[in-house]
Amino acid sequence: MEIVDEHGNRIPPKQENKRVLAGVLGILLGTLGIHKFVLGYQNEGLIMLLVSVLTCGIGAGAIGLIGLIEGIIYLTKSDEEFYEIYQENKRGWF
């Protein structure tokens, strides 16, 4: 859904859309939760990072799978849909 003014000019979102960056980081570095930090979800990112580190890598497989799934979900959303769900409404998980 695109927002336009009375002259038909597109009005950009208030914040930069981070869909592609978060999606790629989720796929490549999901084990460390870097994609969560990029989106401003410090608690979720810290949880993912600590589970991977404190379990000496044992929990990294599960956390990496979560990051992979989230990265794919982010990349399959439209820009507007992603912005609304993850940047405006701050949905932390999936």
List keywords for this structure.
94 residues, mainly alpha, 5 helices, 60% helix, elongated
SSE map:
Elements: H1 19-29, H2 34-38, H3 42-54, H4 60-76, H5 79-88
Structural overview:
The chain is mainly alpha-helical. It is 60% helix and 0% strand. The protein has five helices and no strands. The mean pLDDT is 89.
Enumerate how many helices there are, as a single number. 5
State the major sheet: none
Helix content: 55-70%
Question: Unreliable segments (pLDDT under 50, ≥5 consecutive)?
Answer: none
Outline of the structure:
With 94 residues, the protein is mainly alpha-helical. 60% of the residues lie in helices and 0% in strands.
